[in-house]
Amino acid sequence: MQIKTIFQSIAAVTFAIFTLAAHAEATYTESQPNITITSVQPDFTLKLRSNPSTGYSWAIEDYDAKYITPLEHSYQHATAQLPGAGGYELWSFRVNPHAFITSQQTTIRMMYTRPWEKIKRRTELVFHVTTEANH
Predict the structure, then answer these.
(1) Residue 117: what pLDDT?
(2) Do the strands 87-95 and 43-50 form a parallel or antiparallel pair, or are they unpaired?
(3) What pTM was computed for the model?
(4) Can you list the positions of beta strands (E) in 82-135?
(5) CA–CA gap between residue 44 and residue 106 (Å, rounded)
(6) H helix or E strand, kind and range, residue 37
(7) First CA to last CA distance, the chain
(8) Contacts for 42 with CB less than 8 Å, ≥ 6 apart
(9) What angle do CA 109, 101, 132 make, to 5 degrees?
């Protein structure tokens, strides 16, 4: 009887792990500007190198609100705890359900800048988001 309970527990844990892995949010970086999203996992994150000690930060410059909703913005410190070391800004998004009726293509434009400067020195990143239609 105890062996049956152990096997059931192992099966439940294995199922939970695979379910969480299947629904893990996709993360993209500067080197991955082309993003394909399915309705099974409509959430994704942009992980962008950042160093707020320089005064620079990422901002959403442009996106299509018909298809994409920004969810959350946070900062992740670098693993090395050195003074002035950079880290990452994490920007989470959700593709809206109607974007999966037919395949869609849209962009998210991000700017890395010092917001207070009159003459903007900035870095621009453009992410191309494609949705796969539901069938």
Answers:
(1) 86
(2) antiparallel
(3) 0.78
(4) 87-95, 105-113, 123-131
(5) 14
(6) strand 34-37
(7) 45
(8) 94, 95, 96, 97, 100
(9) 60
Report which residue type is found at 42: P
Closest CA to 48 of 12, 10, 86, 5: 86
Q: What is the dihedral of CA 95, 18, 76, 40, to 10 degrees?
A: 0
Show the tokens assigned to 132: 């796969």
Hey, which residues does 48 pair with through a beta bridge? 89
Task: Output the CATH code of domain 25-131.
Answer: 2.60.40.2020
Rounded distance between C-alpha atoms, residue 69 and residue 129, angstroms: 12
**Which tens digits make up the pLDDT trace of 19-71?**
334 446 799 999 999 999 999 999 999 999 999 889 999 999 999 999 999 99
- Read off φ and ψ for residue 45, nearest 5 degrees: -130, 140
Q: What's the CA gap between 72 and 70, in Å, rounded?
A: 6
